[in-house]
């Protein structure tokens, strides 16, 4: 119905042109019939008033027909002819065609009104339940999408009738409810479904490498939803419904919000935007996220507030000065490096550095309390004292090297004391504690490096650090305003702060050693003096853990995989410094003992391999190759730990004992 009405509307110029010609032709036919009848009346010589009235009526009909075919004129013609047809002025075969012509004239003159009345769809108001079903059908077939215009045009036909509503104070209320209802149905049954389907299609197209589900169009069918986007905006009440703009806005909003949640996915969403343009002709807005490459990573404030979580979830790499997330639910692992910290410090100001170190101090206090409890435990303390006594007895026979077997025995023996539900011994937990302490120290080191990085990037605009001019004096000489002098004073203070920070850089490690060392070295904490003898079994435990983590990297299930954990080396170096036990630990010659043990075993295996290669026993050879490989991996891990520990000791000035440091301090004060 609406298509018919629209066709007449679209062709209204042609119709109007044709109607005038048709009207003229019909009027001519009618006039011809009337003129014949008129002649017949005139030719009859009998005069009477009745005959005169008939003649007058025919003349009136003729005159009225000579003009536009309006409603009044047609009414006058029909009245005149009802008088003019008296007295047998028309023959029967003339009258019927005349009546037919006048009927056609009525029809053609009221063509527009008749089409409008016939195509009026106001009855749809009482059958609105059809609308959602119709929309579902349009969405499923997606070929007759252009007919949506007609449907909304039909729904608009209900409005004039609603304007005459009397059961409400104002018909506006009824119109608003109607508008709201239709829009809700449209959103639910078409627009929202379309948005979700387009987003799903884009996602699956971009992630085809994941092989998520069967997308073969021959098997699962295919809908071309692009038809909806070629539709012109649909007018309804005071709005235009633009399906293309609606879907574009939805995708833009979704992609923007999801990119802000996970910035590393920006490339995927850019691909999806390009695909939406190519496949559906949607003109997407560029999100410009991330807007700059200011790599802030995790914020310093965030880490500081949750330092206990941070040190357990992140692993430290000593050489690259970088923290790597232990595990993550995402495809990516977060990393934190000096640049992130520097950017964070630039955001919050350098004052944050001292606060962070203060938080770290609070954290270390809690951890050292647990550390002390572990060392005071009777089972641990008795074993350690036994080991110290044993080493003193056998060191002359063992070339002053701590025996590998003894450390291995301690490592295995401690499992008898109990194991946690996830299979960890007390020594595993102690190693984790030391790693967390080391991670905290690594973080402090990174804060200092980040601070220097931030200062150096700020100070690079100062031409000569040795010769900085005093801006306040220069401004006063020029006699500039008070505001300018104030600004110059501020600039001078900023420059002096920067140069001082850049030149000195606070020795945070020294502070954290000085604050704990007296307590560690006091007589009431004598049980801590046994720490150096637990380091060998601890290193053994660490190497076993490290190898298992690295092996998991090659497996499909990577939970627990890691390639670095230098927090342990940092923690051991820091605690040995606090206890002033570098010399005691060095006296064990532990790493030399390990190296000798593994080299000896590797040589023995190599010797056996040479013997067996002549016997041609494949299985035995394979076993020996695996043994050889395992020994080499263990030796390599110990070497790496030794290098990390040696590097970490440099931060705490391992070359000097506590007595030598205090002597050096006195000499400086004397000078």
TrEMBL record:
Residues 484-653 form the WASH complex subunit 7 C-terminal domain. InterPro entries: WASH-4_N, WASH-7_C, WASH-7_central, WASH7. It comes from the Eukaryota. GO terms for cellular component: endosome; WASH complex. Residues 1-121 form the WASH complex subunit 4 N-terminal domain. GO terms for biological process: endosomal transport; endosome organization. PANTHER family: WASH COMPLEX SUBUNIT 4. This is WASC4 protein. It comes from Prunella himalayana. The lineage of its organism: Eukaryota, Metazoa, Chordata, Craniata, Vertebrata.
